[in-house]
Amino acid sequence: MTEPHPRVMLKLSGEVLAGPAGAGIDPGTLGAVAAELDRALSEGARVAAVLGGGNIFRGLGAAAEGMDRVSADQMGMLATLINGLALEDAVRGAGGAAQLFTARSMGQVGRYYRRDDAQELIDSGGLAILAGGTGNPFFSTDSAAALRAAELGCTLLLKGTKVDGVYDKDPAVHSDAVRFDEMTFDEMIERKLGVMDLTAATLCRENGIEVLVYKMTETDAIHRAALGQSAGTRVTCS
Q: Are strands 233-236 and 98-102 parallel, antiparallel or unpaired?
């Protein structure tokens, strides 16, 4: 068995659970994601996952349309809890161990996030699902993933996208777009490539957490990502 990365943080967008419909939760897609994660756990992966909620509600989009930003972000955080509950149920249904941790106290929904509890679950071979963002408005799910990765001692954050890495410009629009195999956080920030926001990038860089940007729509991509084996663009600290 290939040795997995000691601890990895998997950042899953809400869109990955939406499937072909592009919104809501597609049962087939959810089941496939859960099966890949269960397989990775059975092979020794130590994984925490931070979920987005864009398939249900986009806080930034609502704020742009005139909704109060704090209210919009709170609604977005609640959307991540819906996705977290769905993933927890699906992973358990596939035979794996999973626990939903919430950034705010919601005892009947999930377990209140405490770092030591999440670490204990991860190291015992279970999936720690971290929902509710940071618990505060104005922070993206990328920032939440970076924060939790630093707290939990993860050294690799895996960010799934629709393309197979980081390009100098949008490959869907520009046929001459060039993909990077590796780059530093400083280069990523200087080029304004939009891989993640500045808060998330700074948290990763200052805590020695590398980022791997991979194509999450490929077959077996999430399983390989959880084991730290995905190909893509690696963003390094130096």
A: unpaired
pTM over 0.70: yes
Residue 209's pLDDT is what?
94
- Rounded CA-CA distance 144/133 in Å is 5
Q: What is the largest CA-CA distance in the chain?
A: 52
Which of the two residues, 119 and 218, has the higher pLDDT score?
Answer: 119
For residue 130, list its beta bridge partners.
50, 101
pLDDT in tens, 9-21: 999 888 888 888 7
Contacts 24+ apart (CB under 8 A), 188-191: 188/235
Q: Domain segments of the chain: what residues?
A: 8-236
Place of tokens 């377990």: 111
Residues 178-216 have pLDDT tens digits of: 999 899 999 989 888 888 889 999 999 999 999 999 888
Task: For residue 83, give the nearest of 100, 70, 95, 96 by alpha carbon.
Answer: 100
| Degrees, nearest 5: CA angle 77-81-83 | 115
Residue 4 pLDDT: 47
Cα separation, 111 vs 142, whole angstroms: 21
Task: Please name the CATH architecture into which domain 8-236 falls.
Answer: 3-Layer(aba) Sandwich (3.40)
